[in-house]
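Methods — Computational structure assignment.
A single polypeptide chain was analysed. Its primary sequence is given first, followed by the predicted tertiary structure written as structure tokens.
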Amino acid sequence: MEKYASATLVQMQQKQAIAKALFIVTSYAAANNLPTGGCLVTNLPNPSVAKQYVVRVYASADCYNDVVVTLLPNTNCTPVCTAPTFSAIATMVSCVNGVLQVDGKICISNVSANATKAGYSEGTVYSGPSYAASNNLPTGGCLVTNLPNPSVAKQYVVRVYASADCYNDVVVTLLPNTNCTPVCTAPTYSASATTVSCVNGVLQLDGKICISNVSANATKAGYSEGTVYSGPSYAAANNLPTGGCLVTNLPNPSVAKQYVVRVYASADCYNDVVVTLLPNTNCTPVCTAPTYSASATPVSCVNGVLQLDGKICISNVSANATKAAIAKAQFIVDSYAAANNLPTGGCLVTNLPNPSVAKQYVRVLQVQIVTLML
């Protein structure tokens, strides 16, 4: 119900009140004076649905006018977002001498000034940290620097925030490194096999395999029989030999024998060379025949009786003589082992009988044969 006073509103004590629709303020006394700026209230919350209010303006306690107003909800309130701009790249893991490193990287660059934080996650839909949980923009530009090498191409989504609700997502792909092999400069060298030696007709156990002219990058070496290397690995191989020989006690082979030499620069970087150890087939004693003089002394005669004292003696014997033997002509003593040492007095025999005719004997010093007539 409306009531009006006879005087104009501006001439009367004026008050105002506001209430939700259909619920009127209690009285004139409880109402406020007219607002200076015109607004009865300035802090109403946004309603979930349209909400009505009744405005009552008083002229007096019983003189007022009611007007119903509707407060509509604001359903189009979104931040004014200028999405940050940036470039993103995924860098594959590196390879160090054939070993894949754990250093895959996701980095950003050309980042706009309004960017504040960043995060990343696997896949193409961002599931990484929220704005609150994200890190500040990285100083060096990389969000991560320790990604492993993927077996196949792997996608990541990078999110750069301007604020909690203002961001930009970019998908990057980390490619696998499929070409990681050692950078090998194979060592160079010369290799040779030396035949066993012969000492006075005896083959020695001193066959050698040696290397020379070895390049500076060589570190270890090994060898094995055959033409395909089956010797020690890099870890088990010996350091380069000081004297150059890998082995110095090989036996004499019955036929030519091949060995393969391997010189390492590293575990996966080496050079193989095949050498052939030839048999020593010409090992005979080196003989300098001893020299001496030999004489036969006839038996003596004592009072018409021939004695048994025919002698065969040697003199002027060279220093290399060691043993001596005697035999009838054309019958040589059995062996060096069966011969006697050189006689102290020089005579090999002193009790030969008197021969009926001249008789020949052979005296042997080492391997030389001498014939004497008795």
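Note: The first strand starts at residue 15 and ends at 20.
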